[in-house]
Amino acid sequence: MTKATAPEDPSDREDTGSDADDGGGEGADGDGDGDMDGEGKGAAGGGADWAVPPSPTPWTADLGVREPAPVRTATLWAALATGLLSMFLLGDGVAVNLLLVAVPAAVAAYFAAQAAGRRMRAWTVVWAAGGIGLLVVPALRDADWPSFLAVVSAIALGSLALHGGRSWPAVLLGPIGMFNSLVTGPAWGWRGVRERFGGRRRSVGAVLRALVVTAVLLLVFGALFAGADAAFADLLGDLMPDASVSGGPWRLVLLAFGVVGALAAAHTAAAPVQWDRVQVPAGRPRGRVEWALPLVVLTALFAAFNAVQLAVLFGGYEAVLKKTGQTYSEYARQGFWQLLLVTLLTLLVVVFALRWAPRGDARDWTLVRGVLGTLCALAIVVVASAVRRMDMYVEAYGLTRLRVSVLAVEMWLGVVIVLIMAAGVWGARWLPRAVAASAAVGVLAFGLVSPDGLIAERNVQRYEETGKFDLDYAGSLSADAVPALDKLKEPLRSCALRPIANDLGESDDPWYATSWGEARARDILRDRPPATDVDWSACHRLSIDVTHLR
């Protein structure tokens, strides 16, 4: 990809020459980078993190897609286990059960990759471990939005683990191969089932009858033992999921969802799409003056803005506010969103500048490094200024989900800019995977810090300092905010916690569908429930008082 987006760096050529030192050279398994990921230009590499045997099918030869090896029995059993766990565990909500369901799905993919002759690589382990780690967020947090973001990111990392790849097409297009396997994977698994039973309905019927008899025996004797001993009945009630007849159709949908998902992952592992073979045409190189003049002028503009920011930093905000006539909060609100847009546009400018950069000789490469390196360094100062503006914004108006989200995005964009600067020094072949890894780490950290808890804690601190508090917004947060809101004094505490307590209701979810944040909130509300003598009208008056306090 760097050949398509940036002038060739001599250091890249030197690095390529040592690829075979650790068994990853192009002549061995198609790995052109020596990082044990099987992703290079050789016959077996392409974009996979495991080495894949040759003989691609003719109609997909461009992407290196091969017919998968016959499905192994272990893969089928792992897919069935995924379906059963989905059926019994996912119907009551999402928490640690999602992690439990993902484990046999990963095992199915592992066995399928082994059958296809692929070898485990270091980056495969990184992506797989990262995907599983992201599923810890729903187990810890009650808030839906960080959990949803973590699940989506886990799917993306799982796609990278199954497909492999080091280029931008591999990082960005990997999930497409997963969606295609949602159709081809079940058909592949069904062929494996038919082969094992020789296509004979009698054998299939025998297995089904055995399963039915097993279920009946467990149901009858389990019910008798539960009726004979109350302690055993409580144990079964805690351990066994709800499998009521009324939820039967939904349970069957979850069973199909688990089986299809596991087979799709296994099929992808057995026959990955090698997205690294997608060639992005290089942009037409521009002359030095044509390319450098706009960027040098833009860099000068960045330098002027940053000089003003430093002057404000050392001279204080009072002089600036007096000169502009703005209030402290207006200055903060006006600045952040523009600076966030500046950061995004800077990344776009860098991308297109690399695409059209002059590539004649080493002097061109030095020019590109110097101009874009300076621009990126100044962009880091802009990111720091944006973060400071958001801090001022929060001091004036409090912390919300939107504000903490865009702040996290701005900080991640700063990390991406730093990675681009490092790529200018050490080469850019590792950049796509580094950006993907940084995004995954950011999503994981975002979930682990508990955004709703952080919002509540920051707003409680602001209330203690200023006496201002958005009571209505506090009541709209998830159970993760309960520990921080519990620190408020009455009657504000009861007014803030009552909506959350009403949303939680009575505890009827099983342990595997209850997040740690929800369980912790229930313990706090059980020990110190909201005061019953504080009614809605009192909370409404209190909300007006603390929100519009002058």
Which short descriptors sum up this protein?
23 helices, transmembrane helix, DUF4153, disordered N terminus, 550 residues, mainly alpha, transmembrane, DUF4173 domain-containing protein, membrane
What are the SSEs and their pairings?
Blueprint (H helix, E strand, L loop, with lengths): L1 H4 L4 H7 L56 H17 L6 H20 L6 H13 L1 H5 L3 H20 L4 H29 L4 H28 L1 H10 L8 H23 L17 H28 L1 H8 L3 H28 L6 H36 L3 H26 L4 H18 L2 H16 L4 H5 L6 H4 L6 H13 L11 H12 L8 H12 L3
Helix pairs in contact: 3-4, 3-11, 4-11, 5-7, 5-17, 7-8, 7-11, 7-17, 8-11, 9-10, 12-15, 14-15, 14-16, 15-16, 16-17
Describe this protein's structure.
The chain has 550 residues and is an all-alpha fold. It contains 23 helices and no strands. The radius of gyration is 29 Å and the shape is flat.
In short:
It comes from Streptomyces siamensis. This protein is an all-alpha fold and 550 residues long.
Q: How large is the radius of gyration?
A: 29 Å
Strand content: under 5%
Query: Which outline best applies?
Result: flat
Q: What is the percent of helical residues?
A: 55-70%
Quickly give the structural class: mainly alpha
Average per-residue pLDDT, rounded, comes to 81
Low-confidence stretches: 1-61
- C-alpha termini separation: 57 Å
The counted number of beta strands is: 0
Protein name: DUF4173 domain-containing protein
Pfam families: DUF4153 (PF13687)
Keywords: Membrane, Transmembrane, Transmembrane helix
